[in-house]
Amino acid sequence: MAATDLIKNYYAAFNAGDMDRFLALLSDEVVHDINQGERQLGKAAFAAFMTRMNRCYREQLSDIVVMASSDGRRAAAEFVVHGQYQADDEGLPPASGQRYLLPAGAFFEIRDGKVARVTNYYNLNDWIEQVS
Prior knowledge:
The protein is α+β, with helices and mostly antiparallel strands and 132 residues long.
């Protein structure tokens, strides 16, 4: 599978809320660099992160643009997050169903047809302003 197809499938599964399909696109040793946060290792940690995210946030991504290196080992995506903050997340403002619109992006490393690393970026201060 081409790198761009892999990343498009990754976001299609995310938007569909199909966590089984979403997680199946990750390598077992996936490295997850959380926006302005820690680095987590492994598919189990990524699955736990997504469980928390899906409890606290309802999100859909639009305007997704995917780019890949010519060798297919690296990819990047830019998109817009349309979200609703539905449950308090630790260290963040209280949730009361606030809606937000946030430009974001991600960088990927691809190995053996799977996502081996994902680094997400969005402006956390912008998000906090929108939900405060």
